[in-house]
Design goal:
CATH architecture of the largest domain: 3-Layer(aba) Sandwich
Shape: globular
Largest sheet: 7 strands, mixed
CATH class of the largest domain: Alpha Beta
CATH superfamily of the largest domain: Type I PLP-dependent aspartate aminotransferase-like (Major domain)
Number of helices: 15
Distance between the termini: 39 Å
Helix content: 40-55%
Radius of gyration: 21 Å
Strand order of the largest sheet: 2-10-9-8-7-3-4
CATH topology of the largest domain: Aspartate Aminotransferase, domain 2
Order of helices and strands: HHEHHEHEHEEEHEHEHEHEHHHEEHEEEH
Bound molecules: pyridoxal-5'-phosphate
Strand content: 15-25%
Length: 390
Amino acid sequence: MKYNFDEIIQRKHTDCLKYDNLKEMFGTEEVLPMWIADMDFRTPDFIVDAIRNRLSHELLGYSYICKRWRPAIQSWVSRRYGWEIQTDEIGFVGGIVPAISFALQCFTKAGDKVMIQPPVYHPYHHVTHDLERELVFNPLKLVDGQLEIDFADFEEKIKGCKVFLLCNPHNPCGRVWSKEELQRMCDICVENNVLVISDEIHCDMALKGFKHTPFASVSEDAKNNSITFMAASKTFNIAGLKSSYHIIQNPEIRNQYNEFLRKSELDTAHVFATGPVATAYEQGEEWVEQMLEYVEANIDFMEQYLKENMPKMGMIRPQASFLVFLDARGLGLPHDKLVEFFIREAKVGMNDGAMFGEEGSGFMRMNLGCPRSVVEKALKQIKEAYDKIA
Ligand SMILES: Cc1ncc(COP(=O)(O)O)c(C=O)c1O
């Protein structure tokens, strides 16, 4: 491999959420951080160099969106997904959670219904709730070790909703939705006049045997009735740059959203937000492929380790990205005790599965975007604790 993903990088004392916020998050500093969704891999050198190059001009005044940014995104989604878009369909927004909040403010009003599919990325719950929109749940079902959509329930619950918030691929559990599943959700939403917001932040990280399909690419209906959010942040480990974008192909929806952003100047990018991202898309293909290969081997390692050493636990194998949903229901502990067990006994800091919805009770989300030696250490710590109670 050209890139070294085994390298241990000291992140403590860098104002890093994953390592410097342990006390607030877990009530103790004594945990190995395997939570929040950024990776412990070095941000690739071509991105850091792009930032350094810009910094070598020592004047950080107001910046304009880099001219290479839109063509770089256009070419990336064409190369990777065969999705042909126009550059004027792309717009800047500083973070996908804010982008979702802005979209809900733009296209719904207080009291309107927004459907989500728990267990799902927790800010979907919080943002919708905080904006006083009503949450409607279409829970995903666990069938043969993978999440499936309950379409009968989907058809029922979508009635009266204004927006469906889709996580594509899904977080947690890393489910990659097929073209057929996306089209079926699209048809139901169109029939019920429901706008689809498709959060595709994990799109570049489909693992072996799986292929990401942008929701808007499945049909004319999907194209005309959706907003897509994407970013290079997960892909290249640059979440701290707070740089993401929307792709909206329906001109009416696009104009309405752009107008909303423009009125509050929410569409302006900071000085490092677009140039380094353009560089990532221009130069990053090889890095992404190697990173995914490494992550996949971490997932294989964990699956095997659980089978051999902790048969009462299992995992939902992700089809995309580096987040594994650890199934600890077999330990028979009530959920709050389970969370305590992993923090106090195993001393591994993971996301509590129930934060994604009650469907996540009995599960913990573990981040495998880190060197293999860290995965091994975490699993050994869990095994030592497991052996005392299993
Ligand atoms: C599905 C999903 N959407 C959005 C985000 C966060 O996006 P941002 O940091 O751009 O707000 C995450 C981060 O984990 C995520 O998993």
